[in-house]
Amino acid sequence: AQAVRIVHHMMDQECSKLPQYVKIDLPSLERLSKMIIQGLYSTFLGEINIDGCISEPNYEYFHPVKATGLALVLGKEAGLSKHQLSNLAKASLLQNIGYTLLPREVISSLKAEDDEKSPEFRQHPQLGYEILAKEKDLDPEVAVGVWHHHERWAGTGFPRGLKGDNISIFGRIISIASTFHALVSCRHGQKPFSPPE
């Protein structure tokens, strides 16, 4: 709940600003990523919550937090260091920061099956990258992970249609975690799948 409140506050505070005026609360982001990682290391991995979001109106705030937990499990299994896990958490929590530069109605009106077809929606990874790339105190791999989180191994993703190893490890991990969470969540126009489905 604390993580959701922080993500909600970060995104709402920056809505409708020009990219050069969007400021990321890096100290809060650092505390949040460490808090999630600490929970990951102190919790038995089989007990990580893989439930989806049941609150459709708040999906955009719950989604990055829930996807971050899953991304960190994958990152830990992939052998990432604690420093890399911290950066992975930041990238996953901020995966949709580009939404802040899109008209509010674009995000709220999209049905689950239409979001990746929307030209506006397809801009958000690039916009997120542009916001984060200017943050001097943020590791560049965080911005790249946000940029790549909708790329797909076969080259069918966006915004650049990257393939395979050209997609950053953070982008690949966030994509898997984010897709899984999206599928098990209640979203506009979509009933959730069960985790086994």
Q: Could you explain how this protein is built, in words?
A:
With 197 residues, the protein is mainly alpha-helical. It is 51% helix and 0% strand. It contains eight helices and no strands. Helix 1 (2-14) crosses helix 3 and helix 7 packs across helix 8 (169-183). The two termini are 27 Å apart.
What is the H/E order?
Answer: HHHHHHHH
What structural category characterises the helix and strand content? Answer: mainly alpha
Give me the number of helical elements.
8
Percent of residues in beta strands? under 5%
End-to-end separation in angstroms reads: 27 Å
How is the topology of this model organized?
Blueprint: H1 2-14, H2 26-42, H3 59-77, H4 82-93, H5 104-109, H6 124-133, H7 140-148, H8 169-183
What can be said about this structure in brief?
Helices cover 51% and strands 0% of the residues. It has helices spanning 2-14, 26-42, 59-77, 82-93, 104-109, 124-133, 140-148, 169-183.
For this entry, give a set of tags:
197 residues; 51% helix; 0% strand; globular
